[in-house]
Design a protein that fits this description.
Shape: globular
Helix content: 10-25%
Structural class: alpha+beta
Number of strands: 4
CATH architecture: Roll
CATH topology: Sulfate adenylyltransferase
Strand order of the largest sheet: 1-4-3-2
Largest sheet: 4 strands, antiparallel
Distance between the termini: 17 Å
CATH class: Alpha Beta
CATH superfamily: Sulfate adenylyltransferase
């Protein structure tokens, strides 16, 4: 998974453990391991959610100041399905 620089730093320090993505279909899977910076994220769950599930609290938990900013960054390509990806970060 690719993260904006300011989010990537929060992923690495462990303060961000989830991401909202808008894709045609999931691009990651539970149990998958993906390089981020000097380490990896281990995806623990991927679940489809509705746009209405994206609250200010979820936006903050994802590393964004608000829902509008999150939605500007979350859309990748022509997809319309919203996914909540939860993960942990490790250096090994």
């Amino acid at each position: 998974m690719v993260f904006a620089k300011h989010i990537r730093e929060k992923v690495i320090d462990g303060s961000v453990t989830c991401s909202v993505r808008i894709w045609q279909s999931p691009r990651v899977k539970p149990g998958g391991r993906y390089r981020v910076g000097p380490g990896f994220i281990d995806v623990t769950s991927v679940k489809q959610i509705d746009l209405s599930d994206i609250t200010p609290a979820l936006a903050r938990k994802s590393g964004f100041a608000g829902v509008v900013y999150l939605l500007k960054i979350a859309k990748h390509g022509p997809g319309e399905n919203v996914y909540l990806v939860e993960f942990s970060y490790s250096e090994a």
